[in-house]
Please model this.
Amino acid sequence: MRFNTRTRFGLYPLSALIVTVACSEPTVTSAVPQRLGSTVSASSLFQAEIRVSLVFGDCDQAGVCHNTGTGTGHATGLGKIQLTYSTFRYGPLDPCATLIGTRTITTTAGSIFVRVEGEGCANGGGIAMPNFVWTVTGGTGRYANAAGTGTAESVVSSVPFMEHWAGWLTY
Model:
């Protein structure tokens, strides 16, 4: 049985573990992430933990602020990574602001270029909680044909902070 519960990125939610009854027999179907109708292999599931040092930039008169940063960490299938970080914040984080930017993930084998879009919200106690959807836009070296998408989240109470990435990546 196929389910048509794809997200706006054409993926089945990872959290979907659906038990159905068909012809009086229970059937368990795990909705594995898919792209363009094909099953993603386990080797392309992607996770990263990145320690980010962020510089909060000045805001222009329209309230757009440019934040930059760098980070280091480890990613599934890539090993040790370096991250460069550029995000534009549209308005104050209290209560929430739109965040749009780019990331470059670099290894000894090449770089992966990523676009991020999301929202950052402050909790009123000086802690910001940005959450992004990321999409691979290209790459160099071994990652010249990279593709992928996923989410990134963090809790920023001080700098540096940890950013957690999850999704899928092929190259």
Notes: The CA atoms of residues 33 and 39 lie 7 Å apart.
